[in-house]
Amino acid sequence: MNKNIVILGTQWGDEGKGKIVDCLTSNSAYVVRYQGGHNAGHTLVINGKKIILHLIPSGLLHDNVIGIIANGVVVSPLELIKEIKMLETNNVFIDKRLFISSASPLILQYHIEMDIAREKKLGISALGTTGRGIGPAYEDKIARRALRIGDLKNEKTLSTRLEKIVSYYNHQLVSFYKHKPVDYKIILRDLLPTIDLIYDMIQDTTSILHNAIQDRKKIVFEGAQGSFLDIDHGTYPYVTSSNSTIGGVITGTGVGPKHLHYILGVTKAYSTRVGHGPFPTELFDDVDKHFSQKGCEFGSTTGRKRRTGWLDAVSLCRSVHINSLSGLCITKLDVLDGLNEIKICTAYKNINTSEIVSFPNIDEWENIIPVYETYSGWTKKTLGIRKLKDLPYEARNYINRIEEITQTPVDVISTGPDRSDIILIRDVFFC
Ligand code: GDP
Ligand code: IMO
Ligand code: MG
Prior knowledge:
This protein is of the alpha/beta class. Helices cover 31% and strands 19% of the residues. It folds into 3 domains: 5-101 and 202-262, Adenylosuccinate Synthetase, subunit A, domain 1 (Adenylosuccinate Synthetase, Chain A, domain 1, 3-Layer(aba) Sandwich); 109-197, Adenylosuccinate Synthetase, subunit A, domain 2 (Orthogonal Bundle), CATH 1.10.300; 267-424, Alpha-Beta Complex (Adenylosuccinate Synthetase, Chain A, domain 3).
């Protein structure tokens, strides 16, 4: 039986989802983005050439694959066009291979200005957003005032509704945030030329996916962000504004759970986080330098330095539960090469009482410290290894321990940024 698979991040984003989606879609018919927007930065490296995608599904570099930007994604038409053009300059043509849901909410200039104005006003309490207007765009959706992709098809109502929304935003931007206003005529002027370019892509993507399921086509669902950036299950309020956990696939596409056959949790072999918020295993020492430099831990979207730390198996176990993971993909194993010792956080301890505590509430994070298990590192290079048996004994031991702690099989291991740097232990489409 052909299976549909979901590939999502189990940590705070940037786990290497883009690379894994690219690797696993070569024999698929469809690849689907279901939440988030251009806050995502998914890096693909193919024969040494790097491409970073923000909105366009990562599997589209295979020219047999059809891409869907489903209803759960917030879409900036200007960014979308920019990305299509960037791909064209790289000889990737997605003409007639990309469909966008008419129900996807739009991201327009006022969302971006509002995101920036709010962060500025929050000062040291800022969330550290990507400044892409994601929060305000999802707020408009929930408040039932969003302009959506389908609205681009009717220029007259688009213009009337845009004028109203802009006056609503300008009132807040100027009066409350003391920020510059936006001009609806300029927004409309910039938006109109994009409509012709994407008009034919605007579709009922739920129907496309249902037909694909009936035709028994393989579908890969590509998550953005990570489970602890999820609006409900993440380290609120230091989260994004969508459901990056498994539920986001269902509401964000209109495909029901019985059609999701395998859920792969992409997990970096250590931890990173960009932006503010709890991070129990965060390091500030030479190991942080090692992860930063060897792992090139700088944001794919904003270029910010990512915070780094040891693997946090407490939160990973929670990710396994909240996403019903079928298996794990451990990425960036090669970044651990050369470390004398490697640690895994296996419990959280109350800093005052030394008692082991369960998963903290938002006001409890600062009272916990990690409890570690320590393992020997390895000196041999794992970069580019493609067979499990070729990994050093200590690296296999590390993988085995992750399986034991999480009670979840590691089915894929990534050993470098390139598409070909991968160990496929089980075929996730057929296991
Ligand atoms: P995503 O947002 O989850 O798709 O991840 P990003 O693309 O933002 O960040 C992952 C970074 O790690 C990118 O620079 C990738 O090229 C790189 N990467 C992915 N897998 C591996 C790996 O196994 N080893 C190394 N060294 N780099 C990797
Ligand atoms: P990918 O898909 C890492 C973080 C931001 C900030 C918080 C809220 O590449 O893994 P937002 O702009 O979404 O309102 O910011 O979420 N964030 C990410 N961190 N990877 C991402 O995406 C992220 N998308 C958002 O840094 O802390
Ligand atoms: Mg990223």
